[in-house]
Amino acid sequence: WWTAAIPPLQAGAAGLGHVNAPPQNDGVLRRIPNLLRFRSGSQPVLYPSLALAAASHYLDVKPSQIEAGNGQITLPARSGERHIPLDQYGSTWVNWIGPHHSFPTFTFNAVLDGEVPASHFKDKIVLVGITSAGSFERHATPFSAVQPAVELQANALDDILMRRSARASPDWVRLLLLLAIPSLIGAITFFFNSRVSGLLTLAFCVAAWFGAVASLAKFGLIVPVATLILAAPLSWSICVAIRQFLDASQLRQAEERYALAVRGANDGLWDWNLITDEIYYSPRWKEMLGYAEDEIESTDAAWYGLVHPEDLVRMKTLIERHLNGETPYFESQHQMIHRDGSVIWVLSRGLRVCNADGKPTRMAGSQSDVTLQVETSRQLERNAFYDSLTNLPNRALFMNVLERALGRSRRRSEYSFAVLFLDLDRFKTVNDSLGHSSGDDLLIQMARRIESCLRPGDIAARLGGDEFTVLLDEIGDVNDATRIAERLQKEITRPFVLAGHEVFPSSSIGIAISSPNYEYGEDILRDADTAMYRAKSQGRAFHAVFDEAMHAHALALLRLETELRRALERENFLVFYQPIVDLQTGDLKGFEALVRWKHAERGMISPGDFIPLAEDTGLIIPLDHLVLREACKQMRHWQKFFGVSLTISVNLSSKQFAQSDLVEQIQNTLRTTDLPPSSLKLEITEGVLMDNPETAASMLHQLRELGIRLSIDDFGTGYSSLSYLHRFPLDTLKVDQSFVRRMNEEGENSEIVRTIVALARNLNMDVIAEGIETRAQMDQLRGMHCESGQGYYFARPLPAAEAEALISKGTRWEMESEEVALIGS
User: Fold this and answer.
1) Domain limits at 231?
2) What is the four-CA torsion angle of 789, 795, 800, 801, rounded to 10 degrees?
3) Helix, strand, or coil here: 270?
4) In terms of DSSP bridges, do strands 732-735 and 709-715 run parallel, antiparallel, or are they unpaired?
5) Is residue 552 situated within a structural domain?
6) Cα–Cα dist 404/529, whole Å
7) What is the mean predicted confidence (pLDDT) over 704-728?
8) What mean pLDDT comes out for the span 56-76?
């Protein structure tokens, strides 16, 4: 407590007020205690501040009327209540009007000497106090380093009278600001770089200062702006430090990732200082060329000295162009010389760095070993245009050369060329008998022999399988092409040694001569292929030159193939039946099933017109199946209806015989038609059996196990090996009609037939003679003890209804009569 004024002083004064104003911890005076307790004897006395006492007197408020409570002092003046806020210490914040001398100040001497008119003090409150600079009653304020105490009271009095008393902001506002500022500064630092965020933080501090001043002036609210201003740069410093730490961490991680990536990518690095002309080569850069760390100098000459001479000029040019700004980056794939003398392929990339004047001062980049990629690319490119087995050009490259030759022939009328299309005969036999590796060996040797027959400028290619093509460049006429074709065939027919076996292949060759009529390479290749098929149809080891008639024939075959496919879908085929007769008794022993095509426009088409096409296109397989099914069904019908024991003979084509599921197919057919296996006789040509005797024997044994009878068709035309014949489980030898037609009593063909019959008897087989057309032929065959025969002499192939009529009548043929006679039961 403070000591109160002595009683005489109290009695003689209009009012008393204290002038105590303790400064804050920083020595600056910001608040005054408007009420203080003083000791008067043993009783406490509540004294107002001098400013509050003066204001009460001025407002005509008695000291006893001053009210204090609820954080404020209330003066109930007639002109309106005055509310003076108090803080938690009972003090009131001074709302300073300005620095020292903000209020009019006069010295006592000036007043006493009359220098200041009395009118200056009318209706004014005059405070008298010490104002000299050397006086003790001075305080440091927010506006002045030293300010007289009397001016403190003047400011406080002015605040009360003008209702400008200041109050401190609530604690929650200060707490909210202290929390919000770091967040705001952190956001600024996150979105902007250090320089920009620092300027924004400074701007925030300035704005906070002016905001605090405006708040005090407008609302009398004191915001602790110093704390905010200190918190903002502190927060910025902390955020920048955190960001720099995170950036440094990310940079370190990025550098680690880069180092790992470089090591993982196996790339070498180089860094060229264009000012000093020194180049840094990383250890990996040197290692990929076989050099140790200290074995390559840091110069461009060391680099250039390792580049292959073929690529050096081009590489230097690319570097110069990039340094001159002509290219966005430097990239060069070139050869370099390894320390061991070998050549490797590298890919070098780099970027230049320029100074403020745009002059390049540095160039850095990487170098990768791309030898494997280059070799793989070249191999892929070779595979795209060359046959991997024979190393000959493939179809793509051949067609490219062929198109260029066609273009040359259009530009030069005197230029002529030819295309040869070669197909190996019986290549499948080599594959099936000696294996695919021997087949591949044959193709490789064939390629070399073809190349040996060509002239400079000619090109040979393998299209695929056993097909080869040759482009003969600059020929005089067709004779040049045929001479080379003959040379090829002569060379090809020489024996090949495959897996210890001598093989004698042959080739059919088609020839097409260039013509202005050819627009595309595919056209002349197609015609050479057509000519090759014409040569193949003439036999083995033939060649043929394409003409327009072949093209017309090929188109006709194409149309016929389309019609054949439709006919198969609609089953527009009929099975005819030719009787097989016992030559000793004249009895009917069975029928051979023969197919006929019932064409909607051309009528009945004989097998010779469509069977070869069906075999070439593979349509023979469904056709054979159709004939087998219909023949078995028909024979079973006759057996059930007439109770006869006849056999039905059905031909198997080479393609059907080669089917892996042939036995299963026939088994299913017999099951669905309910025909006994012994009633079915399958006829296979001699050539089919001899193409692959081992496989054929296995297939025949499986069929024989089913109970099916087996016959070798057209025997004598395929020059079968007798050593194989006895291994086939055959029931019948069928004499080809070509021998029967040319028989006479003393002729060679008669002896051939006689030999076949004797051979069959020795092998426990029966014999059927085909193509019997005359009585004389039949008598001769009977004299040779040939068991059975068929031919026009007995009957042509008959529709099912007519064949059924023979069965129903119990027909037998009279063998002794001079004329053919049918005897019905």
Assistant:
1) 171-258
2) -140
3) strand
4) parallel
5) no
6) 20
7) 78
8) 82
